[in-house]
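User: Quick sanity check before I run a bigger batch. Here is a single chain. Can you write out its predicted 3D structure?
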Amino acid sequence: MYKSKIIGVGHYVPDNVITNSDLEKLMDTSNEWIVERTGIQERRHIKKGSGDSPSTMGTKAAKIAMERAGVTADELDFIVFATLSPDYYFPGPGVMVQEQLGIKEIGALDVRNQCSGFIYALSVADQFIKTGMYKKILVIGAENHSGGLDMTTRGRNISVIFGDGAGAVVLEATEEENSGVLSTHLHAEGKHAEELAMIGPNTGNWVPEIMASDGKDLSYYPNMNGSFVFKNAVVRFQEVIFEALKTNNKEISDIDLLIPHQANLRISQFVQQKLDLSDDQVYNNIMRYGNTTAASIPIAMSEAWQEGKIKDGDLLCLAAFGSGFTWASALINW
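Assistant: Done. Predicted structure follows.
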């Protein structure tokens, strides 16, 4: 049976750096307040007129991953694109990447699992490869959060957290015994869906209705029950990591690098402490990019690889928790 091997990683973030000091000019906040609660020092926002969007950023990240993999666009069999912030309500950005890469008529699938989106997308691609249906699959996570944030004091609890960017990997079928995706683990608990959500616009509360509300309807801004999300995240992160390890008869000490979804540095540090992992065993970059949702894990993976922190033979664990609630993990022999 085939296994899925990551043969190329890449990422792209906008040039426009937004520091905590920049946000102090827009809302009642401070660098100390933001760093203490999130660990974030700066993030990237798409600049108007730059041409950046989830699909174009995803394409840029994909081209880097493909170059590193030594794979041309014509060799790709399928595209899986994870995002909560597509260029359009429909169609999804997967088909736009197909067009931007100049690929003819291969399938393109969009995944809407927010913070867990990249691992969900990776799992979908992994199944296609395991069954022998496809040999090379492009998996992308990309987000444009800045276009939908309330950049006032009213929205500061959420707006200071999120950034824009994209990451991508190329998966290839392999029969090598000691490399590739070992397993993926996906979960959801929809009863908490509205604890971290953007309710409108939706087909039951469309744009004209929201606009007619004289600014009283704030459903088109994201909302989050922060403390409730934190309490659930730290539990689910640990559960899904142990699930991956148990499935593959591995121990915490076997992990060479854990790349958690970059939701909040405090969550990552809490999980690291509970699992008794060293600083060298956990990779965080939320300080520089904020929370980029579906893009956070592939951006971090690409950076870690660039920095030499992911090497052949390493055991890599990916883990995520977020809106839905959804949570997921993947264990990979690099």
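The CA atoms of residues 94 and 108 lie 5 Å apart.

User: Great, the batch can go ahead then.
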